[in-house]
Amino acid sequence: MLHHEIQSEDKILFFKKEYISEFVYGGIDGAITTFAVVAGAEGASLGITVVIILGLANLIADGFSMSVGNYFSTKASRDNFDRHKAREYWEVEHLGEAEKAEIREVYEAKGFRGELLNQVVEVITSDKDVWVDTMMKEELEMTKDGKTPIKTASVTFLSFLAVGSIPLLAYIFAGLDSGIANSELFLYSSILTGIALTIVGALKSIVTERNIMAGIAETLLLGGLAASLAYFVGDVLEQVFM
Amino acid sequence: MLHHEIQSEDKILFFKKEYISEFVYGGIDGAITTFAVVAGAEGASLGITVVIILGLANLIADGFSMSVGNYFSTKASRDNFDRHKAREYWEVEHLGEAEKAEIREVYEAKGFRGELLNQVVEVITSDKDVWVDTMMKEELEMTKDGKTPIKTASVTFLSFLAVGSIPLLAYIFAGLDSGIANSELFLYSSILTGIALTIVGALKSIVTERNIMAGIAETLLLGGLAASLAYFVGDVLEQVFM
Asked: Which InterPro entries match (chains A, B) (predicted)?
């Protein structure tokens, strides 16, 4: 009954909410990173082929490193939980009295006193699983991350590639076979990236459970500022070096 | 006493362990991302100025977007906790009987029965803070993230910039005023990046509490594969487009 309630709260549109979070953050990172390459190259007037080559190289390398990094950190967080849990089992086994005293402290802090406190401590420490579970939540304040490393990494990778390729679309499809000016391609790329960030920013508000407009504004502002920085750096360095 | 124990466990070399984690992941991401630009440009034979311009533009834009994104997501996770907690306070206030029944379920699952169960439920629900705290940990399995958004973002940004600039050092200091070949600069950049990833990979094992060799191997492999992908994409696209 309790578990049912939690699960239904955490599922939205058949997706587990936690994977929407990977989709959103992977997508935002992909779009912003790739658009920064586009903006930096445009600021330095580097030409269409440089944008496409370094944009794609960056997209694939960053998407790979972000998602594999994500795999390792999700795995590390789960392993860390398991290791602490194993240590608590060991302590319960070998340092029973000290661990029992800690359960007593925990329940004393909750307002239990006298004979009732004794009885509570007895019940908790009569079942090793309950005992360790209490130590994990109350002493270490750790709860297990329910995410599967391989799933978080896959969703991040696919989202990074899909959303992150959007800033390059105009260059790939229009840039090579016609006389469209660089500045016009950059405009199209900016518009497409803006639309993508708006959609992902709106989805972000599902994850953060906040106002949808705040999610969109935050995401657009972040992308706009990162791209402006890249453009500015490209522009300044062009004058220095070229 | 309990809190003292937890804090001392989480501090290493005067740093809170959680901020070592930001340093490590910011640094790894910075070095891998920047080295991917270097490798992609080398694969496509794009020249030293392109490496420096897009490397720096990417470093600053990515460092900014990663750390600000980090700020928002740490903040969102804390806000999410606070919102759920406020909701539990509301439920305790307005749906007291249902929430009391949930506390009963939680403690029944721990092995409490009969009169003792009644008494435990009475004590827990006699203090609203204890009641809500129990709902947060036992029903929602949520514990508060102790990290401060502005600190995690700052550490991430500085680490991203500091470690992420290492792949560019050879190009910036040796590339512009001498006749060193591109391939030689790429070799120096690879060696410096390898050293940086080795150090940060070793630090990562402090965060993950795992074998130091595994931390180094994992980090070097990840950086090497990401750079190889970027090099390969650059190389293939050079043949297609140039």
From this structure: Ccc1_fam
pLDDT, residue A155, reads 92
Model-level pTM greater than 0.90?
Answer: no
DSSP A132-174: HHHIIIIIS--------HHHHHHHHHHHHHHHHTHHHHHHHHH
Which residue among B32, B64, B208 sits closest to A65, beta carbon to beta carbon? B32
Query: Do B57 and A36 make contact, defined as CB atoms within 8 angstroms?
Result: yes
**B112 is in which domain, residue-wise?**
84-139
DSSP bridge partners of A15: A12
What residues of chain B lie within 8 A of the CB of A138, using their CB? 137
Q: Does any domain span residue A10? A: no
Cross-chain CB nearest to A110 (options B36, B124, B237): B124
Which of B76, B71, B83, B82 minimizes the C-alpha distance to B149? B71
Residue B15: strand pairing partners: B12
8 Å CB contact of A40 and B58: yes
Q: Return the structure tokens found at B196.
A: 């940086």
Could you tell me where the beta strands, DSSP code E, fall in chain B? 11-12, 15-16
Measured CA to CA, the distance from residue B176 to residue A197 in angstroms comes to: 38
Q: What is the ipTM of this complex?
A: 0.80
Same domain, B59 and B169: yes
Which residues on B lie below 8 Å from A108 (Cβ)? none
Q: Are residues A108 and A217 in the same domain?
A: no
A67 and A115, same domain (yes or no): no
What pairing do the DSSP bridges indicate for beta strands B11-12 and A15-16? unpaired
State whether B77 and B189 are in the same domain. Answer: yes
What is the token pair recorded at A11?
A: 């599922």
Measured distance CA(A7)–CA(B141) in Å, rounded:
12
Q: Report pLDDT digits (tens) over B116-152.
A: 888 888 888 888 899 999 889 888 888 877 778 899 8
**CB-count burial class (<10 Å; 0-12, 13-18, 19+) for B115:** exposed
| Amino acid, res. A154 | S
